[in-house]
Write a structure and sequence with these properties.
mainly alpha, Beta-lactamase, globular, 234 residues, 2 domains
Length: 234
């Protein structure tokens, strides 16, 4: 993956576009086959009740197509544009996985090694204390780490104010370690590592922290230097 991005920075963007296009096709089996590309996008927006959508296609470092659909503000009927900002949400998982795989390709992370190999503390699902958790499990969403832990009242989207966002080091220790400010048994599922599929936001946050520990760089700085600059994204 690292070599692919280094040789062709636009490859990741095109791959993401292909993935999203396929996802839309799978989720909308009744879409008419005769629609053009633009008509297909409009159909998906209407069918899925999307407020807006922005699309860009890059070829050989040049933007060959970009267009926005819908409204940036529906109440005020403000049209969306290619420069309309969107919440990244789970798109950040793509960058987290890319960062981790770059370190795998540099032999700094082993996909099947116990995470405790890299963490400055011991981490285990207390319901399965003898079963190691690996990077591969996190990337496959089978780590036994619960989705968000909202049932403990800790919603990672809303708990911290914008001017109080903690470092990954602080948050991970508060959330995952017994005695931490926001720790509870509900951080973990009853299934053991590798036993069951469960999409987990908090597990990918832990992986971002491992990227920090292994690389010696803050996660945001790592992504800026090794992903975004190579993609000429910022």
């Amino acid at each position: 993956m690292y070599d692919l991005i280094r040789r062709s920075p636009q490859a990741l963007l095109l791959s993401l576009l292909c993935f999203l296009t396929l996802a839309c096709s799978d989720s909308s089996p009744d879409r008419p086959e005769s629609l053009s590309f633009r008509e297909s996008l409009e159909w998906e927006i209407e069918s899925n009740d999307l407020p807006s959508l922005a699309v860009v296609i890059v070829k050989d470092t040049e933007i060959v197509y970009q267009e926005a659909f819908g409204f940036a503000n529906q109440t005020q009927a403000t049209p969306a544009t290619p420069n309309t900002p969107y919440i990244l949400g789970s798109v950040t998982k793509t960058y987290t996985a890319t960062a981790a795989m770059q370190l795998v390709e540099q032999n700094l992370i082993d996909l099947d090694a116990d995470l405790n190999t890299y963490l400055p503390f011991s981490l285990r699902n207390p319901k399965h204390p003898n079963d190691p958790i690996t990077t591969r499990m996190i990337l496959s969403h089978i780590s036994s780490i619960a989705r968000n832990g909202e049932s403990n009242g800790i919603n990672i989207w809303e708990h911290y104010q914008n001017d109080e966002v903690p470092t990954l080091d602080t948050w991970v220790k508060d959330y995952f370690l017994p005695g931490g400010a926001y720790y509870s048994d509900e951080v973990w599922t009853d299934d053991g590592p590798g036993q069951a599929l469960l999409y987990s936001n908090t597990a990918l946050t832990l992986l971002g922290y491992i990227v920090e520990v292994v690389s010696g760089e803050e996660f945001r700085d790592y992504c800026q230097a090794h992903i975004f600059q190579m993609l000429r994204a910022f």
